[in-house]
Design a protein that fits this description.
About 70% of the residues lie in helices and about 0% in strands. With about 90 residues, it is mainly alpha-helical.
Length: about 90
């Protein structure tokens, strides 16, 4: 089931992340999560959507893992500060 979906998953992750290496890592992480959560799939016909949702949820974590953060600031704090810069549309 999963092997047949890997090329499409790779394209989806590449589209989200704009980085083929990070996309490959995201697909691998999503595949491991899907394997661990395989019993939560109630309808085998919905397997592609189920796996894609896992992958889409993994992608922001891959982005966050590669972004440097200032000391003492969480990612939420950093986002808030950038949004408050003068001249930036809200």
């Amino acid at each position: 089931m999963l092997l047949a979906r890997l090329p499409g998953a790779q394209r989806l992750a590449s589209w989200i992340l704009h980085d083929p290496v990070a996309a490959e890592d995201a697909v691998q992480e999503a595949a491991l999560l899907a394997w661990d959560r395989r019993r939560s799939l109630r309808d085998p016909g919905a397997g592609e959507a189920w796996f894609n949702r896992i992958l889409v949820n993994v992608c922001p974590r891959r982005v966050a893992a590669t972004r440097p953060q200032a000391r003492g600031q969480g990612s939420r704090t950093g986002r808030r500060q950038r949004a408050e810069l003068p001249g930036r549309p809200r």
